[in-house]
């Protein structure tokens, strides 16, 4: 599940459609902090990232924060179960 | 588990000591956004909050983001399993 600026999007197809619609292939993306913790009951990991984006043609950086909840499968892989993204307006 | 500005703190006693050491009883605290998603495998909830803090004697607001992972007990209560806090520096 993805929550992007408050918009809730569920399922692989809809999330892929949303992410590919964003102009992120042209942006500069700088990560400032990464924090992670074990999410022990699920064998997963919660990850919290903050950073800034610079969009093409824009001088100013946009600050953002994002969290992921990575959950492990029985085969030892991980998938993104939860993804929440917010711009941090000054 | 609490990660506060990159400092990792584990266990009820140490987290309580950290939180009570902060000057949050005197701050103004304004929440801008709250996003939440079910964390289905655990019967829990992930919550993502952004907002601003104003400390006593300071004119400027500090922007922050914070995530919680709430996990349910067999009795139907919730506890905070993961808590990550970051100030968003401009």
Topology readout:
The structure is a homodimer of 90-residue chains.
Chain A: E1 2-4, E2 7-9, H1 12-21, E3 28-39, E4 44-54, E5 62-72, E6 78-87
Parallel strand pairs in A: 1-6
Antiparallel strand pairs in A: 1-2, 3-4, 4-5, 5-6
Tell me the CATH architecture of chain A.
Roll
Largest interface: A-B, 29 and 29 residues
The residue-averaged pLDDT of chain A reads 88
Number of helical stretches of at least 4 residues of chain A: 1
Cα(first) to Cα(last) distance of chain A is 27 Å
Contiguous low-pLDDT stretches of chain A (5 residues minimum) are none
> What count of structural domains of chain A?
1
As an assembly, this protein is homodimer
* CATH class assignment of chain A: Alpha Beta
Radius of gyration of chain A: 14 Å
Shape of chain A: globular
Please provide the ordered H/E string of secondary-structure elements of chain A.
EEHEEEE
- Biggest sheet of chain A: strands, sense, closure? 6 strands, mixed
* CATH fold-level name of chain A: Nuclear Transport Factor 2, Chain: A
- Please indicate the percent range of residues of chain A in DSSP E strands (runs of 2 or more): over 45%
Class derived from helix and strand content of chain A: mainly beta
- The largest sheet of chain A has its strands arranged as 2-1-6-5-4-3
Number of beta-strand segments of chain A: 6
């Amino acid at each position: 599940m993805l929550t992007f600026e408050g918009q809730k999007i569920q399922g692989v197809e809809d999330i892929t459609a949303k992410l590919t619609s964003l102009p992120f292939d042209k942006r500069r993306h700088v990560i400032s902090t990464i924090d992670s913790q074990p999410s022990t009951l699920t064998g997963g990991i919660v990850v919290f990232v903050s950073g800034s984006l610079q969009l093409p043609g824009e001088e100013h950086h946009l600050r953002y924060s994002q969290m992921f909840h990575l959950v492990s499968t029985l085969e030892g892989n991980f998938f993104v179960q939860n993804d929440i993204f917010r711009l941090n307006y000054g």
